[in-house]
Structure prediction request, 317 residues.
Amino acid sequence: MPKSKMKILIANPRGFCAGVHRAIQVVEVALKKFGAPVFVRHEIVHNRYVVEQLEAKGAVFVDELEEVPEGVPVVFSAHGVPKAIPEEAKRRKLLYVDATCPLVSKVHREAEHHHKSGRHIIMIGHPGHPEVIGTLGQLPEGSITLVEDVADVQAIEVPNNNKALAYITQTTLSIDDTTHIITALQKRFRDIMGPKKEDICYATTNRQAAVKAIAERCDRMLVIGAPNSSNSLRLVEVSERHGCDSRLVQRAADLDWDWISGAEIIGITAGASAPEVLVEEVLDVLRARFDVSIEEVTTSEENVTFKLPAELMRKVS
Prediction:
């Protein structure tokens, strides 16, 4: 029987951002220079496929620094870590490389600046996310109040109502949600100070804009990414809000064919920690079942790159 026709709209930009690419490269270069094993505290990025590929090369992923034995290098993940972690690594005289995304480090520096200037900080973010934990851990406990939504803004009590305030945000949030929360903060605290340049990273912004550009044209949207990836989950939410039935999938094997059945136009995107090979994997299984035509919809071009950490470059030289 002839295959039924299916049109696929592929969002661009999608997939790896510069911070994720750099973090993976940090582990690969460390393995090349130091040899296996290289330990990594937490998933280097939120993608199981990426982690398994690095494990096959000799990376060992652990939850806490105490699991790292003496005399081996350790890498800190792209999401950032509390200051206590590198301090403990120094105390133990471990060779460590910090793969924190430079855009996350920017938020850390903002928090430090506000704290030194005497401001209490309100952070917009998701409780328990590694990036949020790392940012909260840059300053003494109680220096930052975390809010997740507009309701939190109305409920929070800052330590001193007469104290100057500033806000920062997690880098992987929904643009629209964050705008509403910032508006609520500015309405309640009229003199609150914000960042000179928004904290939500360029990759998050661009991927959400690309999804918005195709969502209303699609019957279904596939977001390729991990369930613990904040930016991937936000892509699902953005697509849903623009009228498209959407699902997060990690691999082609996760596709729900009953859900896909009857769809004439499917959108595909990938979170910032999902490699392009997983997009190709999904396209291959769709081609096997349908007569596929593909249109790539590009909303912006990305040419951002980040240098490797200086301490690793010194080892390379």
